[in-house]
């Protein structure tokens, strides 16, 4: 595995940036970036951000975000009571992946921090109660719990961070 921190630039999705060589070890996440990210961006369905190294071509990592809401059943389980009468508005960190050649060098953390800072900014304009992530596997669950997320009781592959926690961590940073 490569050694040392790899500082990256994180930029909004652009078709001009070559995605063809991206390989994170999870074919579904690779294919989504190559085949679907552009269309989803144009249709305003998701926003994708790319980690790039200005010195070299290609994408080192990416994340994608969209809106989300927890339905009443999920809400009741989350709060341990059926008292909530309305779904919870949330945002979803739908995908986050790092090219295997840059793994273990802090690119994933830089992408996550960038995403969370963006959510702090968004939360000043649009109300939502939490950030939800869908982890791809148990390794990804560890990645997210390391960074403050809590697994849902009924589905530990889905995790959340409340907007209150988010703002307490990132506001003013
Ligand atoms: C999970 C993933 C995004 C991590 O990216 P990365 O750039 O290798 O991670 P970083 O180097 O930024 O590591 C940040 C921290 O998370 C931890 N971490 C990273 N990958 C981890 C893993 N697979 N399991 C447990 N912890 C992990 C690191 O130990 C580090 O913590 P430390 O600084 O306390 O040592 C990357 O391995 C990946 O793309 N995996 C395939 C796709 C995937 O599973 N995506 C996740 C959600 S869909």
How would you describe the overall organization of this protein?
The chain is of the alpha+beta class and 173 residues long. The protein has a single domain, classed as Gcn5-related N-acetyltransferase (GNAT) (Aminopeptidase, 3-Layer(aba) Sandwich). Helices cover 34% and strands 28% of the residues. It has helices spanning 27-42, 72-79, 107-123, 138-146, 163-170; strands spanning 9-12, 47-52, 59-70, 88-98, 130-134, 150-152, 155-162. Strands 1-2-3-4-5-7-6 form a seven-stranded mixed sheet, with helices on both faces. The longest helix is centred in the middle third of the chain and has 17 residues, at 107-123. Coenzyme A binds at residues 24-26, 29, 95-98, 103-109, 135-137, 139-140, 142-143, 146.
Summarize the structure.
The protein is 34% helix and 28% strand.
Secondary structure tally, helices: 5
- What is the rounded Rg? 16 Å
Q: Give the biggest sheet.
A: 7 strands, mixed
Helix/strand order, N-terminal first: EHEEHEHEHEEH
Highlighted features:
173 residues; alpha+beta; Aminopeptidase; 7-stranded mixed sheet; 5 helices; 34% helix; globular; binds coenzyme A
